[in-house]
Prior knowledge:
Layout: H1 2-7, H2 10-26, H3 32-47, H4 54-81, H5 87-90, E1 101-109, E2 112-117, E3 120-125, E4 135-142, E5 145-149
Parallel strand pairs: 3-5
Antiparallel strand pairs: 1-2, 1-4, 2-3, 4-5
Helix pairs in contact: 2-3, 3-4
Amino acid sequence: MWQALAFDGYAFWLLLGLLLLISEFFVPGVIAVFFGIGALLVGLLTLIGLVDSLAVQLSLFGISSVVFLFLLRQRFRRWMHGAEADKSTHDLDDAGLLGARVTVLSDFVNGAGVVSLNGARWDAESELPFKTGEVAWVVGHTGIVLQVGNKS
Length: 152
């Protein structure tokens, strides 16, 4: 009796689908949404009468959820997280530092000194002997150490 009420009705699948879609907001991983879509699909097909047996419902739910997961996950992840999430793999200047103007805060000794960029202090390296107060430009970076030089 309980099986017939729980799994044969379209309401169960539609409710499960909505709950899975909502759960994606609380535990973002772009996975639950595809199981939610699969449950909604089974609920709609059950509602219009194309699917009626429990075995077919469960099989359709599992297969459609996995297919949606593998076919659409990358597209959804890019849409949900935005293009900036992938920027570092495509752009060597992932922090937007190249070409930025800096002010030298301490004389460069043995190729190392300190500069100011947007009000923040940065360790810097340069082959040029910059003096305190001079202006330089970021020509590269290694982690959080800036390479600075003359504007070219």
